[in-house]
């Protein structure tokens, strides 16, 4: 892999100089070092600063550099590295501390293939801890695709766009990336002509079902400003497929033209909440039919290109896992003069008489990235206050994130609002930006590619800088709790020995076979089974009655003093966070061990409707302060 210093670093340092005087930030310059084909990046910081994760900020070259104020209430921004490609899609690689970025085939890639320095890479693996990236190989165009995970942690990227240069068209492509079993092996994308979608899809959505299959819905047959009867793909299909897929879906005809990247969430009853335009339905995953139509969401449509965002709010045992969906923002109209909406709608889809409860953000925002963080709060990043999604259509970037607290508290009652401002970034993140919660409790922010001509800097050029936002809980006066899972949950998982992508294809073996180094130790929990984890708390001595989860009630939304949560960061692209969910587990006991780590007894999730099989970041939360995450795999154990 090679980075083009003449374009990448000159343009990035130009942007740094442009913004630091306007926003009164310290001096930063970015340089690179190449070792064994992997590029690392250093940020020259000329002012000392403190870091919530204990980095040595002595003014020398370092990967982390503070560029906005530290605050327990308002959070902190850090510049941590470069993405190499335009990070318009992103998802974490399970059981690692890495994320994969994917972009379209265009002129703005700054990563080359290691075996041929004249060819670009359109996807990279970024190491969050090391601040480095390496190039991956892709056969088909990833532009405006979707993605999810198989239960073993294999990443599935699907759909895409037209052929470009020596890259094949990706409309019906299925691409697979193994997690390498958490080893140092260098895995790569596996794309095969004999394994495809049943139909081509551009701007589809993916949601993981209770049995681990992927539900794939909607999109268009080709790129366009908005969907239409001529190009729409009003159907759904599964992977692995049903024999009769794809299935016609009239709902996607009725919601034209604003239904690209439909909003889809798996509910705890196993059915799907599906939203497009201003309409929402409950869709059965047994009969594959519509169970219920919900009231329309007030205001303009929320899907691309008006582009609001949606979340399934945290599912908690304290509230008996009663689900709620939150939809926020978007543009008022399809025009460069459209304004960012302040409106949010919140609905309980499984309640007896569901309806939307409307709230207002403190400022308008289209193209928001809404993510759940380990304490159960929602952070809303990125986007603009004028225009709409698409190339060259948005201005007035919204630099200030807001925090949304889903539960009531004295503070929310006093202010009559669940929203609070957070410290702003100084980097505009417009069309094609992403946000992703990561293991250490921060949120990774990357991307912004709002120009059709990517070689022109303009007012909002292609953005390669990666930031981390540290929420206020990382600045607590009390140390973070410590979670250890390996002793109690670790077990040997039998895997085949390492095979290259080429060897897998030649042997006609499934892409989900994996490309790892044989047997590995994985942290495993199973449905309905009780397990123990080791913990250390620093917020004072607690009794078992204070730790055990209270009996669930649909009227109780106040989080417990101590929580054990499972977080799936999902697949992030175009303000859509596919399969993103946080689920709290029931704590059934607390064992104090003087001189050693204490233990929590925890009950595994009841079924796949609540927590689909696969990999999750487990955290323990004490008084709103989470531990660092630990990768845990949820599966049905067979004795």
Throw out a few tags for this protein.
single chain; about 650 residues; ten-stranded mixed beta sheet; nine-stranded antiparallel beta sheet; disordered N terminus
What report would you give on this structure?
The protein has 639 residues and is mostly beta strands. Helices cover 6% and strands 36% of the residues. The N terminus is likely disordered. InterPro entries: Gal_Oxase/kelch_b-propeller, Gal_Oxidase_central_sf, Glyoxal_oxidase_N, GO-like_E_set, Ig-like_fold, Ig_E-set. Keywords: Signal. This is Galactose oxidase.
List the helices and strands and how they pair.
Blueprint: H1 8-23, E1 28-35, E2 38-45, E3 61-62, E4 65-66, E5 76-82, E6 89-93, E7 98-102, E8 112-113, E9 116-120, E10 123-127, E11 132-136, E12 146-149, E13 155-158, E14 173-177, E15 189-196, E16 205-208, E17 214-217, E18 235-239, E19 247-248, H2 251-254, E20 263-266, E21 272-276, E22 279-283, E23 290-293, E24 309-312, E25 325-328, E26 343-347, E27 357-360, E28 369-372, E29 378-381, E30 384-387, E31 394-397, E32 402-404, H3 410-415, E33 419-421, E34 433-437, E35 443-447, E36 465-470, E37 482-484, H4 486-489, E38 490-493, H5 501-506, E39 520-525, E40 530-536, H6 544-547, E41 562-568, E42 571-573, E43 576-578, E44 581-591, E45 598-603, E46 614-622, E47 625-626, E48 630-634
């Amino acid at each position: 892999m090679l980075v083009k210093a003449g374009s990448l670093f000159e343009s990035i340092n130009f942007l740094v100089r442009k913004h630091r005087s306007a926003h009164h930030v310290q001096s930063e310059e970015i340089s690179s070092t190449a070792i064994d084909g992997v590029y690392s990046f250093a940020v020259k910081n000329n002012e000392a600063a403190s870091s919530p994760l204990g980095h040595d900020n002595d003014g020398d070259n370092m990967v982390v550099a503070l560029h906005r104020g530290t605050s327990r209430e308002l959070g902190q921004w850090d510049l941590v590295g470069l993405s190499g490609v335009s990070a318009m899609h992103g998802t974490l690689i399970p059981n690692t501390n890495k994320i994969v970025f994917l972009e379209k085939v265009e002129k703005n890639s700054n990563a080359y293939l290691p075996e041929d320095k004249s060819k670009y890479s359109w996807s990279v693996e970024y190491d969050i801890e090391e601040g480095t990236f390496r190039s991956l190989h892709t056969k088909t165009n990833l532009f405006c695709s979707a993605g999810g995970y198989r239960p073993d942690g294999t990443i599935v990227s699907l759909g895409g766009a037209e052929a470009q240069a020596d890259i094949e068209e990706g409309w019906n492509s299925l691409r697979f990336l193994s997690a390498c079993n958490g080893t140092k092996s260098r895995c790569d994308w596996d794309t095969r002509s004999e394994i495809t979608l049943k139909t081509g899809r551009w701007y589809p959505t993916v949601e993981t079902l209770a049995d681990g299959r992927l539900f794939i819905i909607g999109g268009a047959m080709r790129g366009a400003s908005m969907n239409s009867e001529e190009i729409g793909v009003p159907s759904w299909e599964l992977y692995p497929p049903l024999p009769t897929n794809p299935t016609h879906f009239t709902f996607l005809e009725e919601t034209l033209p604003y239904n690209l990247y439909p909003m889809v969430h798996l509910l705890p009853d196993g059915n799907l909440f599906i939203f497009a335009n201003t309409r929402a339905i409950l869709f059965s995953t047994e009969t594959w039919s519509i169970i219920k139509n919900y009231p329309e969401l007030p205001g303009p449509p929320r899907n691309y290109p008006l582009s609001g965002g949606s979340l399934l709010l945290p599912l908690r045992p304290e509230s008996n896992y009663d689900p709620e969906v939150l939809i926020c923002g978007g543009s008022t109209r399809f025009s460069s003069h459209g304004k960012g909406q302040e409106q949010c709608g919140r609905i309980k889809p499984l309640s007896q008489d569901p309806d939307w409860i409307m709230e207002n953000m403190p400022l308008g925002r289209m193209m928001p990235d809404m993510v759940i963080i380990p304490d159960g709060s929602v952070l809303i990043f990125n986007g603009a206050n004028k225009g709409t999604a698409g190339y060259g259509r948005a201005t007035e970037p919204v630099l200030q994130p807001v925090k949304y607290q889903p539960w009531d508290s004295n503070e929310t009652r006093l202010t009559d609002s669940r929203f609070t401002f957070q410290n702003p970034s100084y980097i505009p993140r417009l069309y094609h930006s992403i946000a992703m919660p990561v293991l250490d409790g921060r949120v990774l922010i990357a991307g912004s590619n709002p120009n059709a001509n990517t070689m022109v800097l303009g007012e909002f050029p292609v953005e390669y800088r990666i930031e981390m936002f540290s929420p206020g809980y990382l600045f607590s006066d009390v140390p973070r709790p410590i979670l250890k899972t390996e002793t109690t949950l670790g077990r040997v998982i039998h895997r085949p020995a390492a095979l290259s992508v080429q060897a897998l294809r030649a042997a006609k073996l499934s892409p989900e076979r994996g490309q790892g180094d044989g047997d590995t130790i994985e942290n495993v929990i199973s449905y309905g089974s009780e397990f123990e984890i080791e913990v250390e708390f620093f917020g004072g001595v607690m009794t078992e009655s204070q730790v055990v989860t209270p009996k669930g009630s649909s009227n109780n939304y106040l989080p417990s003093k101590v929580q054990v949560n499972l977080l799936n960061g999902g697949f992030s692209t175009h303000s859509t966070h596919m399969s993103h969910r946080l689920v709290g587990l029931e704590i059934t006991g607390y064992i104090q061990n003087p001189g050693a780590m204490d233990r929590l007894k925890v009950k595994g999730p009841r079924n796949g409707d609540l927590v689909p099989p696969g990999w999750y970041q487990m955290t323990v939360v004490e008084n709103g302060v989470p531990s660092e995450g630990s990768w845990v795999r949820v599966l049905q154990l067979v004795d």
